[in-house]
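Trying the structure run again after the queue cleared.
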Amino acid sequence: MKKLKITALLFTFILLFSGFWSGNSNADKKQARIKQSKKTLALLYKHAPEAKKLLAKSYGYATFSSAGVNLIFVSAEGGTGMAHNNKTGKNIYMNMASAGVGLGLGVKDFRIVFLFANKKIFDNFVNKGWEANAQADAAAKASEHGGAVNASVTVAPGMRIYKLTKNGLALQATIQGTKYWKDSDLN
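Done. Tokens:
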């Protein structure tokens, strides 16, 4: 059982992070993140139209594309994204990763959108980027087209998070810490 867990974790990290070592130039990687962000926002607006007004009024936002695997007692996620300052128009390119323990089984491919009400919360996220939470969720594909949406406020007043599942199938109850950090190669 222990070998299975270790093998599964190793496979997961190789699968999740293999895109970080691609041969694309930094300019190509930045453009890919911008395109990814636009697709994520389009998905958000499709399933939560009120978010468009909230985003326009926010100090800034961040979008992430992430994949995660839950294997019985171990979970792991990894992804890429960017934070955008609505006041200056500047993009900050970021990464994310997490690992946790708890009951779960499945694979999730999801998008996350953070909305920040003010400069202090935005800067804190970009510079410290740490979220730890106890989470219990059931994400399932909504019809053939996916698009299940869970909206919640977390960590601090002034920060709203939308979690969009494109085609996730996961049942989990994990204590999970997620780290968001600046991509040193792209900033």
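The longest strand covers residues 60-85. Worth checking whether this holds up in the mutant runs.
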